Amino acid sequence: MAQLKKILSIDGGGVRAIIPAMVLAEIERRTGRPISTLFDLVVGTSSGGILSLGLVKPGADGAPHYAATDGVELFANESARIFSRSTWHKVRSVWSVEEEKYQTTGIEDVLREHFGEALLSEAICDVMVTSYDIERRLPYFFKSASVQAAAAGNDVPQDVPMWQVARATSAAPTYFEPFKIGMEDATEYRALIDAGIFANNPAMCALAEARVLYPKADYMLVSLGTGELTRPLHYRQAVGWGLRQWAQPIIGISFDGTSATVDYQLAHAVEPGRYFRIQTKLTKCNDDMDDASPRNLRAIRLLAEEAVSANKRQLDEICALL
Fold first, then answer.
1. H helices of 99-242, where?
2. What is the model's pTM?
């Protein structure tokens, strides 16, 4: 009988990462174990990538530095710093038309503070975080297994600080500028942006990576969403839009559309009873991924509580397999 490998995938969604973080906190509460010991592979995109890295960051004693509840607090308490901009930046960017919406100071300060000097290779369990190289026009995947293999002398990517991986995966176009990561050769670098444009739901990427890492195993896949968009873009309004008006709405459409597509694919690709998708509709909060107002953050928390309650049966089945 093949060994069962357990995979966790977390969507991107800005401040809405509170939703999967609260679902994971419930799983930790029920099992009494940290996520990094429950799953063999953790995969995330954008804010889901930040959450994934936090869950596998080692503490001083080798145990996980952060629990899932810490992920909830990270997005609840630090989102206002992450999505912050000065009046001068608003004017200089012509209110986000000529430059990215937010300065990078806030998000980079937050990521440095939370990840410190931790390296990708130090992840407690296998982790993969998605990004996209805009110069090579190719997806780029940060894989702890690859950089760990580098230590054995194999020809694979160099090690990278976790905070830089988190910055690269969350560089959403129009919101933050791309992030430049230097490679082994001083003349080489990667110019990276948020992979939500092609893998906001990275669960299919997660399954593919699991097949590489554990080729003879059976697979259990838990995929956590950050909320399904429900706000319509009315025809009479959108029919007159040009490039400027479509710039940010198209990001949301791309993120939401790819997430739903991957869910459809995996529902038919994974053995019944081994694929779980926990998602909720964003009917009671603002679906903007950068709305870090206290009112909206509370609304997201309440929506997450409802999602946990509505998915009690799925959570029972997940925890039984874990």
1. 105-115, 144-150, 162-169, 196-199, 203-213, 235-238
2. 0.90
- Cα distances (angstroms) measured from residue 239 to each of 6, 174, 242: 45, 22, 9
CA distance 44 to 127: 8
pLDDT digits (tens, 9 = 90+) for 230-240: 676 666 776 67
Distance CA 209, CA 203 (A): 10
Q: Which pLDDT does position 273 carry in this prediction? A: 93
The angle at the Cα of 43, spanning 116 to 68, to the nearest 5 degrees, equals 60
- Beta-strand pair 218-224/179-182: unpaired
Q: Which residues contact 189 (CB under 8 A, 6 or more apart)?
A: 180, 181, 182, 183
Does the pLDDT value for residue 89 go beyond 60?
no
Q: Coil, strand, or helix at residue 51?
A: helix
Q: Where are the beta strands (DSSP E) in the chain?
A: 4-10, 41-44, 126-133, 138-143, 179-182, 189-193, 218-224, 275-278
Position 65: which residue type? H
